Predict the structure.
Amino acid sequence: MKIKSIIGTLVACGSVLSFVNVASASEPPDTGWDQNPDVVIGGGSDTTYNVMQRLEVLYNGAPGCSIDKGETATKGKCIDPTAAATGATNGNYDHDLFVGATPTGSSAGVDALRPGFNQYVPPIDYARSSSSGNAARLADLTYWGYAKDAIAVITFGSRSNLCVSQAQLQGIYSLTITNWDQLTDCNGAAYASAPIIPWAMNSASGTTASFNTFIAPVSSATNGRKLAPVPPSAAVAPFENDVKPLLADPGPDGVIGNADDDENNYIWWISYAAHLRYPYVKNGCSDGGSLNITSGTCSSGTLINSNLAKIGSTPGTAVLPSATTINNNSYPITRTIYHVTRNTDADCFGASGSTCGAGPEVVGADTGKGGAVREFTEWLCRATNAQHAVNPVTGLGYRSEILGAINAEGFQQAPLTNGYRCSVQT
Amino acid sequence: MRFKGTATVLGAAALVAGLSAPVSASATILNVADQASASSVINIEMTNLPASFGSVVNIEQCWKNDTDPTFNAIVHCDQSTADNQTIVGGNATKAYTVFNGPDLNLGENGCGPLFAGAPQCWIRLSGDSGNANDEFYPIVYGAVAPPTTTTTTTTTVVPPAEVPEAPMGVLLPLTAAALIGGTVVVSRRRRSASAA
């Protein structure tokens, strides 16, 4: 029986080894694999929550080691903790589990990884950010920019075809431009007189940070409208990427449906990716009505659609956000979205100060959650299908799968930079 | 889903392979794409766009359309070259750059005469409601006449100086030598159909 068992095991190993996707010769000798599946939690940005969930699901299902499926104390672990690989080493060898915590905003997420800052509940191991790092954060963290987005400026309802410049947006949010008749549509026609109502956004949001960078030194926090307070809470700025709270807001006078909450006078901004893919976050019903996304009707109030504005110094040069204008950088408010790691967990290969060596290798922790983060990061930033394993269910290479996930959420993949399909800030 | 199986290509054009019947109710592609070039610009005129499209019409190039039951816009359209245009009064026009050959996102799919098998390329128009009301128009590739160059040379001959008979000589008229060594006139004969 023992001989049969040994033979059976050898046959099984031979079968498994026939599917081994041997790591390339350029792989570093140390990896983050430790043959133990870790549960790894991410948190932070709302804008990138959906796309990161898609990527986490893809990674969780990626091929890896042969696991113990028996009724043993090691059920679910790699079956043979020796040096010989028993499965694809460019997939998810340890079968680590990645999961995203509910959003709190980019700043709150990335700072949770840093010493001296409040952690998430439960604690997170990597972060999502829709804005780039600053010097203080980069001392502790590495930002892996895996996709691109734009900040779309939007108007509402009957107000459409707006062409607006950076200077005019600064004027709107500094209250030097207060009436729609000071602005024109893209045909050059002035709008009828009506007060402009500029809205603020959650200050921890990377989407806010990106917009404020564009209108600097003006800040949307100074004069942007906040949601009517719900006692005992104070007024708060709306969370990003959902217009429904704005449309439901009664305005400062607390009365729904009069001049100070006329949605046609609102102006705001939103992730272009969200605007492109999700009608339910960019459209809504006035005055507290509920939108039926299937029928496109409101339980009460009026259906209010948001409308993309063109940005540029003149109507003739203003452009809409789109994949084309993001990728050729002709749209002026673009941004990169990031997967963020502790430097000790994952950093670019051969990093010297803020300069990376050539990818796609990622260096960092060898074991545990840190090692898991390291391997996920390298998976995310590999440039080609040849560098990736094949999805055992779809037959597609994981570069195709990652691209599909990014595009499905309305983003564009990052350009190839120094061997990484990520723009790395370190 | 609405499938527009044909597209009208207007304007004078060289012989075009695959030019099909008129006319689409919602979009007209005004010129052919260059069958020999990896990218070219086509002009799309869109009318009567449905209100459900919202404030912009989204424009993508695809290598399948939705008559194929496996069609998936994310997988079968190039997401990196998608573009859009504001809809005003149900109308929009767009000069849209199309590729011919491998897609520009990952380069593993493609369409047009320069891609293996020359699969048909499609323009997909869509709006706010996602896939429910998208429309497809075939991209027509054909020979696009290159710009024509015409060369004209003009030479002015200066007569020889007059030799005075008198020994004292006379002041010779100075003739400014307006010798034009050659004038090259290049004219472009533009295709009327390619005017944007």
